[in-house]
Design goal:
Radius of gyration: 16 Å
Helix content: 25-40%
Shape: globular
Order of helices and strands: EEEHEHEHEHHEEEHEHEHEHH
Mean pLDDT: 89
Number of helices: 10
Number of strands: 12
Low-confidence stretches: 20-26, 55-59
CATH superfamily: Aldolase class I
């Protein structure tokens, strides 16, 4: 049985780690290099680094910061934010990233997923999806949640897999930062629609939320930010609890 992955997320703005609620009201959460090294040392399975204003500010991801973080970690490392081309991805992979996450650029030009998969292999291509449950169903949002589309979440993840995405990172904007639990029903539906791994994001507030996710869905990984950054949940203790519940995890 594949082990479930626990993944801290470093949302980066102006070179600092930040975290908000429902994608707004951002507060400082620390130095990304120090946090990345700490997570690598204490048993996180992977890291995700998202330059959350790169698309909005129409600039490229901070490659130099990616390089410095990569030198301090020994676990797989995904980078996203402002990636619009194979060339952008190539810079980040050479800076030390293991995988590239794309969101807005893939929605606006879906063939980007195919181009990335053809060049680097689909194991390097993560589709990051921010979606909100509206009166018309789950709709994809772009530019760090600022721009709503009429694209259906479930149609998009199926199409993305066909185009070359090797993994889905789904963030429920309704649950982000609320600490009320993951969007289990939507996550399970996403997971059932694709054959590639799905990472759950948005809503983790206590250890039980991770247990619920892994016991009630087939999701392969859980991503969280503030509960790890502010030490509400410690990764070694979380993994110990999951292991006691017969949830397969990697322990250190």
């Amino acid at each position: 049985m594949l082990r479930k992955r626990i993944i801290p997320c470093l949302d980066i703005k102006d070179g600092r780690t930040v975290k908000g609620v429902n994608f707004v009201d951002l507060q400082d959460a620390g130095d990304p290099i120090e946090l990345a090294k700490k997570y690598s040392d204490i048993g996180a399975d992977e890291l995700v680094f998202l330059d959350i204003t790169a698309t909005h500010e129409k600039r490229k991801t901070l490659a130099k910061l990616v390089e410095r973080i990569a030198r301090n970690v020994s676990i797989p490392f995904t980078v996203g934010g402002g990636v619009r081309s194979v060339e952008d991805a190539d810079v980040l992979l050479h800076a030390g990233a293991d995988k590239i996450a794309v969101n807005s650029a893939a929605v606006k030009r879906p063939e980007l997923l195919t181009e990335l998969a053809d060049k680097f292999g689909n194991q390097c291509v993560v589709l990051s999806v921010d979606a909100k449950n509206t009166e018309d169903g789950w709709k994809v949002h772009l530019v760090g949640g600022r721009e709503r589309t009429d694209i259906d979440l479930f149609d998009w993840v199926k199409k993305a897999e066909q185009l070359g995405a090797g993994e889905i990172l789904f963030t429920s904007m309704d649950h982000d930062g609320t600490k009320g639990g993951f969007a289990l029903e939507a996550l399970q539906k996403v997971d059932e629609l694709v054959s590639i791994p799905v990472i759950a994001s948005g809503g983790a507030g206590k250890e039980e939320h991770f247990s619920d996710l892994f016991q009630q869905t087939e999701i392969s990984a859980a991503l969280a930010a503030s509960v790890f950054h502010f030490q509400t949940i410690e990764i070694p203790e979380l993994k110990h609890k999951l292991a006691q519940e017969n949830i397969p995890v990697r322990t250190v």
